[in-house]
Design a protein that fits this description.
Chitinase A, domain 3; 234 residues; 7 strands; single chain; seven-stranded antiparallel beta sheet; 6 helices; alpha+beta; 38% helix
Length: 234
């Protein structure tokens, strides 16, 4: 493709020194604040702590000037711009929104999986949305809500990555049936001693929309569970 007259002209001027691009000067970097005394260090540490906490909650940015005003007004005993109830409501609503946005992809992926499972043979969906597949049916007692159970299990995400595995630890786990996530409480009561089931537990029957330890918020959890023992409440 032929170059335009103006592009050729600019090229000629540039090579002869008549059209050198203007040099840009980078602004001088601002010097870092100096922690001159103990109070400076304490103040900075408080800022780090507050920011770290809310960063983990999903907040990525704040108006630092307004944050400082809130701190100073509170410490100085000044009239606050928000009362305690309003402040709590504002924070709760905002954190709910932030967590919802963060967990939305996980929730949608889980819903897609559950929808696809419904048409597969051998998979049952309960009224709560829990899905299960019988891998091996036992012939012992079924636990009730008041009982404790001993199980071996593998828990993993949709991508097949384990987040917990009693087999790899080399020992099963014993727990009260009314002290675990709703998906386990419901699912284990479907099983007889000696059974092995596979469960697909939607986020609302697991850990909800918020991150929990290594489990991202909104995650659908998949478990393969062996019911080894039922301990009836005496």
């Amino acid at each position: 493709m032929k170059k335009s007259f103006f592009s050729l002209l600019f090229l000629a001027l540039a090579t002869t020194g008549f059209a050198q691009p203007a040099k840009t000067t980078k602004p001088a970097a601002k010097p870092l604040p100096v922690l001159k005394n103990q109070m400076d260090s304490v103040s900075y540490a408080v800022g780090m702590s507050v920011a770290n906490y809310y960063k983990k909650e999903g907040i990525k940015t704040l108006n630092a000037t307004i944050v400082a005003k809130g701190i100073n007004d509170m410490l100085g005993g000044k009239t606050m711009l928000l009362d305690d109830q309003t402040a709590n409501s504002v924070m709760n609503n905002y954190l709910t929104m932030v967590k919802g946005e963060k967990s939305k992809p996980n929730i949608e992926a889980g819903q897609k999986c559950l929808a696809e499972n419904k048409s597969k043979p051998g998979i049952t969906t309960t009224a709560s949305g829990l899905q299960y597949q019988v891998m091996r049916e036992g012939d012992g007692d079924k636990p009730t809500l008041q009982d404790s159970v001993t199980c071996h299990y593998r828990g993993y995400f949709l991508d097949g990555k384990d987040f917990d595995n009693s087999y790899s630890r080399g020992e099963p786990i014993t727990f009260a049936l009314n002290g675990v996530i709703p998906g386990w409480t419901e699912g284990l009561q479907l099983m007889k001693k000696g059974s092995k089931y596979k469960f697909w537990i939607p986020y609302n029957l697991a850990y909800g929309p918020s991150d929990y330890s290594s489990i991202p918020g909104g995650s659908l959890l998949i478990f393969e569970v062996e019911l080894l023992e039922v301990r009836k409440k005496s």
